[in-house]
Specification:
heterodimer; A: 736 residues; alpha+beta; Aldehyde Oxidoreductase, domain 4; seven-stranded mixed beta sheet; 27% helix; B: 289 residues; Enolase-like, domain 1; five-stranded antiparallel beta sheet; 12 helices; 25% strand; globular
Chain lengths: 736, 289
């Protein structure tokens, strides 16, 4: 029996969006608006030897690091301050901002950008653009002395000893590539001054991140900067930190020029120069005992972080903590490194490291199963986490694990058992299943130590409750789900709830819109705040209730040793993908997609369905279609014709089932759902492709080109005949 | 950026302008606007004078004369595909070309003038033995399509000429085989395309055209290899199979680019040849077995 809150309602933004009536930033009018264009580096790595700044026409401005106020700082503050707003002497990646041209006419600005960029002279240095080149310190370190933004370890049991006494050691390496977000509108903002305050209208997931970055660069108290979120058509992580990178230069220009300034990246510019998903290289050494049980797992994960740190340390942690998927192994060591290169910094992307770790872990399990002659799902079931199991960080799984019944369901509706047996090996058809989980909310102590979320609900004079939170609509339905949560507590129609204030000067900081945390964390705070308001809506006048985040007492975390409960709760998933591989063209035709999820309790089935379908399609694009290659620091696919995301013809309908499993610290039992729906598609696809082509795969994306190489046996990255019991793992591979 | 736009009222006027000065003819603009595109919020930065010809009735008509389909150079794909006389293989290629919005404005004349080695509709025109009508004030000439396109972006069209029509012989496609390998299912550019069509009489092969796109600087077609297949029955095709495959593979010279790799294009070309020679031709030559 479904809880009432799960019942689908009409999304509050459904009509305006379907009709195309929702204004995006480019639709806004600002009096006396000027336009801006970024002047960028044309080398991936070099020292600026001469700027040769050309003369400016009247009414045009060129803003550089010299225009930053003395009390400010030339940085885009994220976790670190290492990413400069404008490069001054050294450039670390192709397209790095050198300055901002501002003026009234966009055609003139386009000509000026060409003049300014081509005038700069560099002493060019050898660039490191791949994981292997970064680890090998090609051209000398980009960052520090070892090129590592982070070098982390987490350990459980005695992995070294267990590996030594293993009867068999299996090694594998997996690689994943870039992915571009392709949000609906490119990076866009208007900076202006309102009521004396620098005010930023911006397409973003995280208005308070923008405020922090802008106030730091300008040397202002945070309260002296206002940030207003405008319609954001999908973020996927791409509107998490990168908006800071475009907002800071514009804010510096506004502080100097004092006019509204609009910066909207062209789509091609956005594809070329903005952050992508971290490429990864994950190596495993797995020890099995005489009974073929896995007793030791040693993981070496490297993420390609790009030129500056951005969120790489945290993405890396989630990647590391996902590298055992949903399995309990008694002895585990995970080393994680975020390596610097001369590419645009990699950053948040739906899943935040988990897709890389889960792809590697799930493919590993399929390949171990093949080596020891066991059915994939049997091996996985032998090691499945359950309630009370220790996690690889020595935390606990507190919740009931419904994976067995979810798996049972997916096997049944997909016809997996029959198809798996009938399709044979290497005959062009395949079906695969992945199991996975995604921790809701920030990793480790992020929620209690860093974000400290705070929400308020105002009882307005007209009797309606108004939500004062920093979380924003990015297509994921939060305008509807937050209203539903509060309306359900107050027992009023959800349309009565007001939720339209997205100005940081008027709302408390409830944290960013990311990490599957909006409903799970902020929704819960709203539920608890609404309880304080219950029965008081008829009181006269206006007043507010507040709720501040408190970390559940049973959870503990040690940030130094990466030990404890990495996440307060997990969403769980089972995905099944069936494919046919064309024997002529090696193209993969996806025949069916079946999914099951435990997201605690769905706040709205329509919203969750949207997430499931969108996550699956984006996941299939990541798995097989979206190819983004980098040569000498430049992305080769920088048009929408060459960077291909799926269309509605590429994939079939997505079947889904929800398993109710209310979580005590989530609103009505809800956990996060925005990322788990992406995480597991690629390994299910990978397992299906392996069966269809009859050989192991070791990378994403599984393009027809890669599959053709595997089928012809010319791909050198897969070592199916690797020796067991080899010496220590090679720390650095320097050959490309 | 103010570019010079010229809009003649008649074909005659358009030809007079072409003979007098350099202008870039433009109909659907689906290639040229991509080439000229500026940043968002600005108009296309045209680097030369353009002459719009998409509205000229003389260029948009589609008609049939004596076993020949005459497609106006500026007839849009949607209209070409909808015409009852259009060969199936050309319809198939158009169905997989771009998106509906593009097919509503894009033209075969533009596809030829753009001379992309990856143009998939043009590939079927090679297989169909199409001719291109080129007109100038001095009159019109008809040139085989493979003599019009001479290299990537290069054509044999003179400065004073316009493509006025594409002439497709009818009845050359009692069987056909078309396969586009794109970057995705729809609205995709080609990694390569393979088009073949011909006639079968008394279990032997009559006229035949085989064309492969995006595996060389222009669409690949070999009259020599086709000549060896002409008159062949199923048994002879089976005997010739290996040397035909080797012959075609010797002609292709694929490159690696942002869409695919040379190796993949070569392998898939080979697979498509095998598919064509081992499956498509025998099933047409031998009939149902």
């Amino acid at each position: 029996m479904r809880h009432k809150i799960t019942r689908e309602v009409e999304r509050v933004d459904a009509r305006i969006k379907s009709r195309g009536e929702l204004p995006y930033l480019a639709d806004y009018e600002f009096e006396d608006r000027l336009y801006a264009r970024v002047v960028r580096s044309r080398v991936a790595r070099g020292t600026i030897t001469a700027r040769n700044t050309p003369a400016l026409p009247e009414h045009y401005h060129y803003i550089t690091a010299d225009d930053i106020p003395p009390e400010g700082k030339n940085c885009v503050r994220m976790i670190q301050d290492d990413w400069p707003a404008f490069a001054e002497h050294e450039v670390r990646y192709y397209g790095e901002p050198l300055g901002l041209l501002v003026g009234p006419d966009r055609d003139t600005l386009a000509q000026l950008v060409e003049q300014f960029e081509s005038a700069v002279e560099y002493r060019e240095h050898e660039a490191a653009v791949t994981i292997d080149e970064g680890l090998a310190l090609k051209g000398g370190p980009v960052h520090g002395s070892d090129n590592l933004f982070a070098d982390l370890h987490t350990r459980k049991g005695d992995p070294e000893g267990a590996l030594k006494r293993s009867a068999r050691v299996i090694e594998r390496e997996f690689r994943t590539a870039y992915q571009e977000h392709v949000y609906i509108e490119p990076q866009a903002l208007v900076g202006t001054r309102e009521n004396g305050m620098v005010t930023i209208y911006i397409s973003t997931q995280c208005p308070f991140y923008v405020r922090k970055a802008v106030s730091t660069a300008l040397g202002l108290p945070p309260d002296d900067v206002a940030v207003v979120q405008t319609a954001t058509g999908g973020g996927f992580g791409g509107k998490e930190n990168y908006p800071d990178v475009v907002a800071v230069p514009v804010a510096i220009a506004v502080a100097k020029i004092d006019r509204p300034i609009e910066l909207i990246l062209d789509r091609m510019e956005d594809l070329k120069y903005t952050s992508k998903r971290h490429p990864s290289r994950v190596r495993y050494r797995v020890g099995l005992d005489e009974t073929e049980r896995i007793i030791a797992v040693d993981v070496d994960m490297v993420l390609e972080a790009g030129a500056y740190e951005s969120s790489s340390r945290v993405v890396l942690q989630r990647g590391m903590f996902s590298s055992n998927s949903v399995y309990e192994f008694p002895n585990v060591h995970v080393r994680g490194r975020a390596v610097a290169t001369n590419n645009v910094p990699s950053d948040a992307f739906r899943g935040f490291g988990a897709p890389q770790g889960l792809f590697a872990a799930e493919m590993l399990m399929t390949q171990i199963a093949r080596v020891i002659g066991l059915d994939e799902l049997t091996l996985k079931q032998q090691h499945l986490l359950k309630q009370g199991s220790p996690t690889l960080t020595n935390g606990r799984i507190y919740e009931e694990v419904k994976l067995p019944e979810m798996l049972e369901h997916v096997r049944r509706v997909s016809g997996y058992d029959h198809k798996r047996a009938a399709y044979g090996l290497g005959l062009g058809r395949g079906i695969g299943i992945s199991l996975f989980k995604h921790g809701s909310a920030f990793t480790g102590n992020g929620e209690q130590e860093i974000i400290k979320a705070r929400v308020r609900i105002r009882k307005r004079a007209d009797g309606r409750p108004e939500l004062l939170v920093a979380n924003v609509e990015i297509g994921q339905g939060v305008l509807t789900t937050f209203r539903k949560i509060v309306a359900e507590v107050l027992d009023i129609p959800y349309s009565e709830v007001v939720y339209d204030n997205h100005n940081t000067s008027q709302i408390p900081d409830s944290g960013p819109t990311c990490a599957s945390r909006s409903v799970a964390i902020v929704g819960y705070l709203l539920q608890e705040a609404a309880k304080k308001l219950k029965g008081r809506l008829h009181e006269p006048g206006e007043f507010e209730v507040e709720q501040v985040y408190e970390h559940p007492a049973h959870l503990h975390w040690d940030a130094e040793s990466l030990n404890g409960d990495a996440y307060p709760s997990y969403a769980w998933g089972v995905n099944c993908v069936e494919v046919e591989v064309d024997r002529v063209t090696y193209e993969v035709n996806v025949v069916g997609v079946w999914t099951a999820y435990d997201v605690g309790r769905a706040i709205d089935e329509g919203v969750i369905r949207g997430q499931i379908i969108g996550g699956a399609i984006q996941g299939l694009g990541y798995a097989g279609l979206e190819k983004l290659e980098n040569a000498r620091g430049r992305f080769l696919q920088h048009t929408m014709a060459d960077y291909c995301i799926p269309t509605s013809l590429d994939y079939p309908n997505v079947d889904y089932a929800l398993f109710d499993n209310p979580y005590p610290y989530g609103p009505f039992g809800a956990k996060g759902a925005g990322e788990v729906v992406f995480d597991g598609i690629a390994p299910a696809f990978g397992s299906a492709v392996q069966q269809a082509i009859g050989c192991e795969i070791a990378q994403l994306p599984l393009t027809p080109e890669y599959i053709s190489e595997r089928v012809h046996g010319t791909d050198r990255t897969v070592h199916t005949q690797r020796k067991t019991h080899t010496a220590e793992p090679q720390p650095v591979a320097s050959s490309p | 950026m103010s570019a010079e736009w010229i809009r003649p009222r008649t074909l005659q006027e358009a030809l007079a302008i072409r003979s007098a000065r350099h202008v870039r003819p433009l109909a659907g603009a689906t290639d040229l606007y991509v080439r000229y595109r500026g940043i968002a919020g600005t108009l296309p930065a045209l680097s030369e004078a353009v002459m719009y010809i998409g509205h000229l009735n003389e260029l948009t008509a589609i008609s049939v004369h004596e076993h020949q389909l005459r497609i106006g150079a500026a007839a849009v794909y949607t209209d070409v595909a909808a015409h009852p006389a259009t060969p199936g293989i050309l319809k198939n290629a158009i169905a997989e070309l771009g998106a509906p919005a593009l097919r509503n404005v894009g033209t075969l004349g533009g596809n030829i003038g753009n001379a992309s080695p990856a143009a998939d509709a043009v590939c079927t025109l090679y297989a169909l033995d199409a001719q291109v009508e080129l007109a100038s004030l001095g009159g019109a000439r008809r040139v085989p399509i493979d003599a019009v396109i001479t290299g990537p972006g290069q054509t044999a069209i003179a400065e004073d000429e316009l493509i006025t029509a594409i002439l497709v012989p009818l009845g050359y496609d009692s069987f056909s085989f078309y396969r586009k390998v794109g970057t995705r299912r729809a609205n995709a550019l080609s990694k390569l395309a393979f088009a073949a069509c011909g006639e079968v009489e008394d279990y032997t092969l009559g006229h035949l055209g085989v064309a492969i796109a995006a595996v060389g600087p222009t669409v690949i077609r070999s009259r020599e290899l086709e000549e060896r297949m002409r008159g062949a029955d199923g048994r002879k095709i089976a005997n010739l199979r290996n040397e035909l495959i080797a012959g075609y593979l010797a002609l292709v010279a694929p490159i690696s680019d942002q869409r695919s790799t040379a190796q993949y294009r070569r392998w898939v070309t080979e697979n498509l040849l095998i598919e064509f020679l081992d499956r498509c031709l025998p099933s047409n030559l031998n009939g149902p077995q």
